[in-house]
Design a protein that fits this description.
single chain, 17 helices
Amino acid sequence: MEKLMRIISMAPLLLLLSLPFALAGHDYNQALSKSILFFEAQRSGYLPRNQRVTWRANSGLNDGKASGLDLVGGYYDAGDNVKFGLPMAFTITMMSWSIIEYGKQLAASGELGHALEAVKWGTDYLIKAHPEPNVLYGEVGDGNSDHYCWQRPEDMTTDRHAYKIDPSNPGSDLAGETAAAMAAASIVFHRSNPAYASELLHHAYQLFDFADKYRGKYDSSITIAQKYYRSVSGYNDELLWAAAWLYQASNNQYYLNYLGKNGDSMGGTGWAMTEFGWDVKYAGVQTLVAKFLMQGKAGLHAPVFERYHQKAEYFMCGLIGKGSRNVQKTPGGLIFRQRWNNMQFVSSASFLATVYSDYLTSSRGTLKCAAGNVAPSQLLSFAKYQVDYILGDNPRATSYMVGYGNNYPQRIHHRGSSIVSIKVDRKFVACRQGYATWYTRKTSDPNLLTGAVVGGPDAYDNFADERDNYEQTEPATYNNAPLLGILARLGGGHGGYNQLLPVVVPAPNPVVAKPKPAPKPKLTPTPASSASPIAIEQKLTTSWNDKGKTYYRYSITVTNKSYKTLKDLKLSISKLYGPLWGLTKSGDSYGFPKWLSSLPAGKSLEFVYIHSASPADVLVSSYNLA
């Protein structure tokens, strides 16, 4: 688990002279499959029937119960059993960005369906963690008591208190990152699950408003997180980051204007970065805004966006050793930022280099560095070198991805993988018993944590495969998330398409062994006149059981069948017994959501609601055609 981060200057680049190892070709698609599989080992909650990491079982089933909420689900961040909201949201943002940029390659590899499931496992939890517009639960569990014990997640007896932010105890960084995750994921599901995408975007809007209106650092409100995920960079980077993702998701000019008006004052155009990760987002913001500039979307903000662009190029030039301040590297050529889980910075920086290379190629541009102009291909070559190092092309000939290659870490700092599976031995492992019986063992882990990328070597390429060497042998979800995109790109190639065109994530191929759905209730069609210019279609999208009660999620599509623009729509919805997303309520009726003022001819609007009854009655009360 990452503890503290500091924004410090990078040391000068170490010169690469000769390397005592041989480069070999890698199976990037195999590495991609394994890297996605790791997320299934990190799942908390009720595991689905199609769970592929079979040594894991259900855990954390009472999360949120003491607060009167269902906070079951989500991901454990690393080798412990705590659910930390900030790194979890960043993980989901980066997985989503990987799919947005390289969804076609993921589909070609057969892994798009698994990648979408990995994102949705996280966003389903984030929806639960955001029960009110200005309330967000940012942590479940206590790192102090959790680290005192060494237990399987299925056995854990540690405190599962849920910690939240609200207007009195704000956390703009946490709310901003969660808004970014929801917005990015809404793009991912826009085609395959539009109702769910609309639900995510609704939460993203609310979370951004909450983050921007009630400003403060989350670790000043959830103080117990300071020892583990302290927000050193503050919250301005997350506000800009969230605005960039909301603009990509909604095309709403408000968020583009936010980036333009606040870029200078919030550091977006000022910070010259040599790192990118769960705490410091500036390099990511600068990369996205540079993309907007290349797409010709800057408008009146072009001068400000050009300053973002310059800082993005500063970051890229520093990665390849051609900037005015270059990142430090090991003698073997790996980016080195810090001893504790250094690999998180390697994967995140390599991802930015990959997408920026493709942005430049699509715009027919070059990278402008202090050492001169650089072809985009050099950025991709840099990213490939970093990934190849992770996969085994390094002085130790060690793969730092568990289960890939023939020589990978065997003694991972991870509670679940280091203790015998509960499916093999159901004897309860007590809090301190785990340390005495399992933690100190010198043998290999009983469970293979396939795909996990560990913290990695030190500044001199040295690595000790020991369970108590948590700085080097502990994995983390945010190490893997950016790799999804890079591995898909390296395995599938560019594909010859313009990376600056509007995003279309392909629909995934069906994934086998899906859990059987709950019996569907009998649906009654929504009353509507066949001559009406407005068509309303209602359908059940999913259902689940909780404490003996069956809940249903319904998706409603409203289509303008006329040849004119639909305005001032008012809907009457009765027999509704749960929350609704995607419309704005006014008195007893519902109208367009706040981001939509009209519906053009032939276009559709979707909204969603959840309750434990048959479909609600949805009727058109009034409208205008113009």
